[in-house]
Amino acid sequence: MALFGLSVFFLLCLSAWAAPGNGTEEAGGLFRRFLARYGRRYSLGSLELQRRERFFQESIQRHVYLNSPVLSHENNSAIYGINQFSDLSPEEFKAIYLQSKAVKLPEYVKTSTKEAVLPARFDWRDKKFVTPVRNQLSCGGCWAFSIVGGIESAYAIKGNLLEELSVQQVIDCSYEDHGCNGGSTISALHWLNKTRVKLARASEYKFKAQTGICHYFPSSDFGVSIRDYKAYNFSGAEEQMMMQLINLGPLAVTVDAVSWQDYLGGIIQHHCSSGEANHAVLITGFDTTGDIPYWIVQNSWGTTWGIDGYVYIKIGENVCGIADTVSAALV
């Protein structure tokens, strides 16, 4: 059951809505349940309420299409349905949450002819080297969340305590990026590497969900800086990418996440391409034990989204462009 992040209740409601013979009363009831579940407060009878209900009903139509047997017939295929984004238009969703910029990277070239043996399953969470899922709220700072998550893990892998570091510091201070209005994992890593800035603890430089004034802590006893980073295009070389994840730690990647607005669980095998990278996330592991091998990917939209804040992406076909922009911090 853990495979599907939201309750079965919403899937049943979706089925009832999609079935023939159900009318506006059922649709209105489903919208009211959504408002209660996610704490939405729109004035009764307002134009805004009508607008949100229209977007909600349009999302139901998308779910029917995305879950159609013709498109989603494979084992463990992704399931789409009602979540916290169901009252947003696709344009609003993109403008708020899909604010990462893609960077063209060199293709990865193997340096050894010896074939390494990969484990069937590997996840840095099993070793307690991954911090909990965060929530970027309405800040388009996914690029900062993904690289900070990677730095936290890299720092712990080297034998240190697993610390939650400040995403807000990167949002405020990475001068090559645009704070909550978007940025790039690669330019942020370049800034960290060039300046050797020490990241403070998240408790000392708290997340505010908006771009603020950059603060430094030169006299602080604690701080994590990076000594370098690696960044490659692994398109067509996802096996080597798996080995890099084992050797270096969790990988920050930039993906096409347009269809993720409606994701509930399962393995994404369709409905996104590498045509337009727009969102940054963190790969913590992989699993090849089942019929469909998949990446285990931490998102920054809170634990109510997806599979407790995670999404599974099929390995081997560069689904969602997951192998195009891959980076890892070295601490």
Class by SSE composition: alpha+beta
**CATH homologous superfamily - what is it?**
Cysteine proteinases
CATH class descriptor name: Alpha Beta
Net shape: globular
Helical fraction? 25-40%
The total beta strand count reads 10
Assign the CATH architecture.
Alpha-Beta Complex
Average the pLDDT over all residues and give the rounded result.
89
Cα-to-Cα separation, first versus last residue: 37 Å
Note the total helix count. Answer: 8
Order of helices and strands: HHHEHEHHHEHEEEEEEE
Domains (count): 1
Low-confidence stretches: 1-25
- Say what oligomer this is: single chain
| CATH third-level topology | Cathepsin B, Chain A
Report Rg. Answer: 20 Å
Portion of residues in beta strands equals 5-15%
The largest β sheet comes out as: 8 strands, mixed
Descriptors for this entry?
alpha+beta; disulfide bond; Cathepsin B, Chain A; 8 helices; single chain; cysteine-type peptidase activity; two-stranded antiparallel ribbon; EC 3.4.22.42; thiol protease
Topology:
Blueprint: H1 8-18, H2 24-37, H3 47-66, E1 79-80, H4 90-97, E2 121-123, H5 142-157, H6 167-173, H7 185-195, E3 228-232, H8 238-248, E4 251-255, E5 263-265, E6 267-268, E7 279-287, E8 294-298, E9 310-314, E10 326-330
Parallel strand pairs: 6-9
Antiparallel strand pairs: 1-5, 2-7, 3-10, 4-7, 4-10, 7-8, 8-9
EC number: 3.4.22.42
Subcellular location: Lysosome
Pfam families: Inhibitor_I29, Peptidase_C1
